[in-house]
Amino acid sequence: MNRGRLIWAGFTLPGALTLAVLFIAPLTMIVLYSFGTVDFIGRPQFGHSLDNYRQVFESAYVPVLWRTLFYAAITTAICLVLAYPLAYCTTQFAGRFGHVIIGAIILTWLVDYLVRIYAWYAILDDGGLLNGGLARLGIPRFHVLPGTPAVLAGLVYGYLPLTILPLYAALTNLDRTIIEAGKDLYGTPRKTFWHVTLPTTRPGVIGAVILTFFPALGDFATAQFLGGPNQSMIGNLINSQFTDSGSVTFGSALTMVLLLALVVLLGGGFALRRLGSRRTTTRPVPNLESIGASS
Amino acid sequence: MSAVAEERSGGLGLIRRRTRQRRAETFDRPRFLWIFTILMLVFLFVPVLVVILYSFNGQPSLVVMRGFSTQWYHEAITSGTWRGSLEVSIEIALVTMAACAVGGTLLAFGLDRANRHLARASESMLVLRLVSPETATAVASLLLFTQLGLTLSSETIVIAHIAVCLPFVAIVVRSRLALVNPELEDSAMDLGATRLRAIWLVVMPLLWPTLAAASMLCFVLSFDDFITSLFTSGVGTPPLPVRIYSMLRTGVTPVVNAIGVVMMLIAGGALIVALSMMRVGRSRSSLS
Amino acid sequence: MSSEAQASLQSVTKNFDGAIAVDDLSLEIMRGEFLSILGPSGCGKTTTLRMLGGFLIPDVGEIFLGGVNVTGVPPYRRDVNTVFQSYALFEHLDVADNVAFGLRRKRVGKPEIAKRVGEMLDLVGLRERARAKPAELSGGQQQRVALARALVNMPAVLLLDEPLGALDLKLRREMQIELKRIQREVGVTFVFVTHDQEEALTMSDRIAVMNHGKLQQVGRPAEIYEAPVNEFVAGFIGASNLLPGTVTGGHVALSGGVQMRLDGSRASAFRDGEEVVVSVRPEKLTITQPTPDTWVHVDGRIVDVVYLGAATNVTLEAGGDLHLLAIEFHASGRQQDRLAPGTEVAVSWDPEDALVLSNSRQVADDPPPQPKET
User: Fold this and answer.
1) Is residue C63 within 8 Å of residue C12, measured between CB atoms?
2) Alpha carbon distance A73, A84 (integer Å)
3) Minimal CA–CA distance to B268: which of A104, A29, C64, A40?
4) Which chain A residues are within 8 Å of C74, Cβ to Cβ?
5) What is the mean pLDDT of residues C346-361?
6) Taking the mean position of all CA atoms in its chain, how far away is CA B122?
7) CB C353: neighbour CB atoms within 10 A?
8) For B105-160, what is each residue's pLDDT tens digit?
């Protein structure tokens, strides 16, 4: 129905417009400004200069870039290792109680992000809870703030709920019969976990990684409050560019680098996934003799 | 580990069988996993408990706790600045929620029904937006506003928030829409309703629960949002997270903890409303 | 379009992405009849139905309802209602509101609605469940609600898209009888799409057989069964032995040297050398009984025997590479032993019971060849 086509255009139009305004246009701005220059007053202009990008890769800033990647990666890894057993236990063994647990976890996430970070201040500071408790036990203080472990702890804490939720969703839908079949096939629970459970929940793990890693890349508040100059992340750099004393063009270039990292890593992840799935389809059926021998 | 059933029937055999079963079952419920889980939950809750604890601090310190006082809650509730920010936060969240509910639903229909290439391209953009670091998207919004010559204010915050939440609502509603039997709309048209009427009468009732839940989550996302708000706020009263940020940088008192608790309660309330709406929807309709 | 016709499709063609779904279809639907559109999956029958309903617009051709050209008219302005394959009941409304839906769109008055909905629910036997939600009903009950919802509007034509597909066998048979009864009682024209030929034979006043988007044959069930116009129809309706052969001088030469005589009128209908298909129904084959000389006799061997209760299916190999299926009805309950696999038997049939079909034939308006009286 030709009339139908028009109606659907009508539906898509507000959405498409919004997308154009809220996605394409802003992105274009970042691109344009990142190639821009600053005029004699200091106002940013569009341009063709690569100076901003050159500045990004200057010796002063490169460590920050690597550090950001490093922090985000470690945070994601730690979060995965912590979240998976938690999600597993909650979905498989907690029954009704599982809903309560997840609800409580979400509730913690609802406390303002900054306030939660600052709570770590209360815990980790020299005069704070951790050291106070240790002092009572006669153990010398840990000077943690400001420092890398504190920042990592803060990052892990901040993003853990985001890791837990996709894993929880994937594990809730885990088919118990597949696990039973796996137990028959592989014998020990450990092998079953490795060969059956993990691969089945792979989409959930991938979702968790994406939802943790990429937002963590852009984080700055954690590093700002729990760390010092040696813990700066790219987010801190970007943030400082857009306050009064910074450079909009430089900040745009930094943001572009951040976005490019997103695109490259995400694209690389997809490519890996396509390779990986090809491999699993050709993986040989487990050797039956070896199963009999091990159990 | 074998689970060979005892051939023996009767009392002793039964006990032996049951013990063997239970031993096999504990392997299914390893205690260490539970201990780990509990430790993790402690890890997650302790900072929140610290927040709550320190919100009653007798002295204006965020590090050393001494005494008990409700002065911070008093300040949070009576102070003009905090009240103002709370109002602004709620206003922004409500407007964002309303705009995203409408826009997200329209976009969901567009994604579901438009030409396949257009739909897939749009959906990729939305997903990309969702996983991008918020710092980057906030910068993007800021630059756009600057370019357009807009003064940064609550209005710009709303627009930026809509950009953040819209993809989420669109994708969630679209997922639910994809589960709706397409013959329902045809059936309503067959019985005399125009296509728009048909959608309103027959498809929307199935979407309401999902839409309501997504809207509530939208409210929470906007209410709690910090990064985007920071970059796009300007003149006028800042929303709560931004005000907390500036206080943390200048001089902080436990009033932020009190505010944190208040925010948690408000957001928690919205979330509970969302969940109960989803449950209502589930009991009302089987997937059709 | 003739005066009796309720609806008609004229030279209707529909393409999807370059593939032809319906190919130059012309069909008249008579007032008050129960017409089935029968064919295998993908033959275009559902597409045809959707075009009648207004959900698809033909690329070529026109559709008429009650003499009016409705080709571009949307569903909500056609005096046609549909019972969908998935029932498409509105889950958030109860049964009565579902049934009342169409009447409410037409802004019928409340007391009138209540009356008509009540009558319709009585007709389908669901009065006590008027306030139930669709999710609480069984499959058969949901199907009846879908029927009531469509029928209450008293459309000129009621379209049914394989409505009995989801039901189990017993329920299906019951519903077939129910539907036929309701149609007769209400007098509405039914157009019923199905792939189940038994269903079509049971319920229809006329059957339209389709394949690959083309109309193969239209006629009463007996005509379709006794006098199929081509190999497809012969093979699709009921079981049939389809034996390819060549016409030579008054005979059809089948494989394995078997010859079948063509009598006068039939012989003239075919040219020498024409490739034809001889169709013989299994019940027309006789095994190891004395039969007249005019009959075709073939030596064969029993390959398989399947006991069906009221009858036995016997699969035979005969004369080279003829595979034949015969069916013996146990009228007087004898002879299981003589039908053992491996037995050499003589198979025969009366040429007058056999149809000679040329594949180039399809029917639009040609009268079908008259079935022979025996």
Assistant:
1) yes
2) 16
3) A104
4) 1, 3
5) 80
6) 23
7) 18
8) 988 988 888 777 777 888 888 888 888 889 989 988 988 888 888 888 888 999 99
Dump pLDDT digits (tens) for B149-178: 888 888 899 999 999 999 999 999 998 999
B-chain residue closest to A224, CA distance: B249
User: Interface partners of C (3+ CB pairs, < 8 Å)?
Assistant: A, B
pLDDT tens-place string over residues A52-97: 888 888 777 888 889 999 999 999 999 999 999 898 888 887 778 8
Q: Does C46 touch chain B (CB under 8 A)?
A: no
Q: Is A85's CB within 8 Å of B131's CB?
A: no
Ordered structural domains, chain A, with CATH:
47-282 (1.10.3720.10)
Mutation site for C-interface testing, chosen from A1, A2, A5 by largest number of C Cβ within 10 Å: A1
Architecture (CATH level 2) of domain C5-226: 3-Layer(aba) Sandwich (3.40)
Q: Tally B–C CB contacts below 8 A.
A: 66
Q: Decide which of 1.20.210.10, 2.40.50.100, 3.20.20.480, 3.40.50.620 is the CATH code for C231-357.
A: 2.40.50.100
Q: Tokens 């969240």 belong to which residue?
A: B93
Q: List the single residue in B1, B46, B135 with the smallest CB-CB distance to A238.
A: B135
- Shortest alpha-carbon distance between residue C89 and chain B (Å): 7
Q: Which residues have CB under 8 Å from C9's CB, separation 6+? A: C25, C26, C27, C48, C51, C52, C58, C61, C62, C63, C64
Amino acid at C231: E
Q: Which residues of B touch C153 (CB under 8 A)?
A: 191-192
* Mutation for B interface: A112, A206, A244, A259, most B CBs within 10 A: A112
CB C190 within 8 A of CB C34: yes
> What pLDDT is recorded for position B223?
93
**Contact state of C91 with B187 under an 8 Å Cβ cutoff:** no
Q: Tell me how far apart the alpha carbons of residues C36 and C50 are, in angstroms, rounded to a whole number.
A: 14
Helices then strands, counting H and E runs in chain B, come out as: 13, 0
Q: Do the strands C206-211 and C34-38 form a parallel or antiparallel pair, or are they unpaired?
A: parallel
B193 contacts chain C (CB < 8 A): yes
The CATH label, of 1.10.3720.10, 1.10.260.40, 3.40.50.280, 1.10.580.10, for the domain at B86-284 is 1.10.3720.10
b/e burial code for range A101-135 (CB count within 10 A of at least 16 → b): bbeebbbbbbbbbbbbbbbbbbbbbeebbbbbeee
What pLDDT score was predicted for residue C63? Answer: 94
Question: Hey, where are the domains in chain C?
Answer: 5-226, 231-357
Give Cβ neighbours of residue C96 (< 8 Å, ≥ 6 apart). Answer: C117, C121, C130, C131
CA of A287, closest CA in chain B: separation in Å? 20
Query: Closest-CA residue in chain B for A179?
Result: B28
